[in-house]
From TrEMBL:
The organism's place on the tree of life at top rank: Bacteria
Residues that span the membrane, as ranges: 6-29, 41-65, 77-95, 131-149
InterPro entries: DUF2214_membrane
Lineage: Bacteria, Pseudomonadati, Pseudomonadota, Gammaproteobacteria, Lysobacterales
A Pfam family annotated for this UniProt entry: DUF2214
Keyword Secreted: no
Keywords on record: Membrane, Transmembrane, Transmembrane helix
Name of this chain's protein: DUF2214 family protein
């Protein structure tokens, strides 16, 4: 029981950390970008990636060692929908991560580098779509937890 409680608690904290980092990226991308902001974006995105990896590890731990057991998850269509949405968020996050790294590299080569407004707007849109998908994951998680009362 304690293991399940600890894994569930850590899982929720990591999800909220993930959301906080995406919100921070979204806020930073809506304003004028400068050297400090570009460096902050890259740092926050690195934290986002580390948080996502920890979330995956803890999620696997919940499936393997949680009180519900792996059978609950593997036969739950809401779990598969939730995982699909999470994979989509992960795939969407690749482009901003690559851009932020390129921006950081360009900034190192040219101290007055600033990305163009259109590219910044595209990254902002992707980050906001990720946030919307994370909201959908919350809905899918609620449906998953009530698997017995809901069916597809």
């Amino acid at each position: 029981m304690l293991t399940d409680f600890l894994l569930a608690s850590l899982h929720h904290l990591l999800v909220f950390g993930l959301i906080a980092m995406l919100v921070a990226e979204s806020v930073l991308l809506r304003g004028a970008l400068d050297r400090a902001t570009l460096q902050r974006l890259a740092g926050i995105d690195m934290g986002y990636g580390l948080c996502a990896m920890a979330l995956i590890a803890v999620g696997i731990g919940r499936v393997a060692f949680g009180i519900k057991g792996y059978d609950f998850y593997l036969h739950n269509p809401w779990f598969h929908a939730k995982m699909g949405a999470f994979v989509l968020v992960g795939l969407l996050s690749i482009l901003p991560t690559v851009r932020f790294l390129r921006w950081r590299k360009a900034l190192a080569a040219n101290p007055i580098f600033l990305p163009d407004a259109a590219e910044t707007a595209r990254m902002r849109t992707i980050v906001r779509v990720e946030l919307i998908l994370l909201a959908a994951i919350f809905v899918l998680a609620a449906a998953m937890a009530r698997h017995g009362g809901l069916s597809l």
